[in-house]
Amino acid sequence: MRGTLNEQMDTFKRGVAEIIPEDELVYKIEKSIKTKQPLNIKLGCDPSKPDLHIGHAVVLNKLREFQDFGHKAILIIGDYTAMIGDPSGKKKTRPQLSFEETREYGKTYFEQATKILDTKNIEIRYNSEWLSKLTLADLLNIQSKFTVQRILERDDFRNRLQEEIEISMQELLYPIMQGYDSLVINSDVELGGTDQKFNNLIGRDMQRKFGKEPQVVLLMPLLEGTDGSEKMSKSLGNAIGICEPPKEIYGKAMSIPDNLIYKYFELGTRKSKKELDEIKQQLSNPTTNPRDVKKKLAFELVKLYYSEEEAKKSEEEFERVFSKKGLPDEIPEFITNSSNNKLIDILVNSKSVESKSAARRLIEQGGVTIDGEKIADVSYQLSGKKEFIIKAGKKKFLKVKII
RNA sequence: GGGUAGGUAGCGAAGUGGUUAAACGCAUCAGACUGUAAAUCUGACGGCUUAUGCCUUCGGAGGUUCGAAUCCUUCCCUACCCA
Question: In this structure, which long-range contacts are made by residues A345-354, counting pairs with CB atoms below 8 Å and at least 24 apart in sequence?
Fold first, then answer.
């Protein structure tokens, strides 16, 4: 254990949306320092989508901070609950996963999460360990502590009720099961996004109803995706995955709207309070081009998940390809023979576009260049050389070799 | 069990016998402008050997019709109300 109460609280409060209740967290930390006992910090993980993005990283970063002060991270892989589907923020019922799938995804989750977490001070638990053993009588006993009204208070449910969108019985049970996890592992603090507030509070209730000291709920803001409006999520296509290639991370970070730069710094990186203040100041200075601050952000993110070297490379390529309209250093090759040298076919056969109609559209709209020259002729054929560089749309490059 | 309203392209939502590959909005893609921003403007947005041509699409299957997303039969699914 290390760190004073103030050091810990300062760190833990950074970037946080809500601590319920804060004075209990103070109490728990004081107790922990006095008894030299680390706190149990719970984080529930939904293994249904094993591609972690920097939205997930927000909470993982916070968990890492707790670890850095010596507290114990307990990752609950919700393999059992994933078979039900978490209704959080969803208007529709999620697809259910098989037991095998959730196990496999859980493993992937852990592998990716350790890009952020300290592997030493961590405990991984699958909630099937206890949930699968519950008898109907156990479940009835747990359920008897809660009322239908209490569960329906949740705004997801309320909204769906109002909008006449189905809610399945098992979804209703989801918060109960998740809350039960807290009881079993004796969590002192549960981390989550603000969308997890209800679930996490049920955990608090659960512990209290069973005579345990209730957990503190610490909620992190949700990070908007690259589109700047929706919450970051892979299915919305606005996520920056932490396992994506460095150039992708860099490029995607550059595409976020300016007003999110600070938030990304605050929630997505490990910058200190002082550094954050500097960034804030730079951004408010009218002579600063926000692009330059954004470049730092993009650099920082690549550095965080890869290395400084990769970050430099990504930055160089970004400048070359997009600022100077040059070529990336790796271009996929496509080899074709001279009897099939129609541009439109090459675009389709190399899977650069989805269909022939799409290829035609792209050409007609001026989105295709060959060796830097715009081609507007749909029936264009490559000839005269053995090698061509085709650019289709904004991001797709193709090196065509004719044999 | 009874009643009512529904199921249309990635999503939302028009259309209720023909000029409908299906209005409109969102999302997406491309172009212009740029900082691969954002905003804005323009265009595209089922597929095909580009054709004022063909094929596939309006929950599934069958039927009526010269012609169906639209009418009929049947099946499946959802919500709401009553019990």
Answer: A346/A382, A346/A390, A346/A398, A346/A400, A347/A390, A347/A392, A347/A398, A350/A398, A350/A400, A352/A390, A352/A392, A352/A396, A352/A398, A353/A392
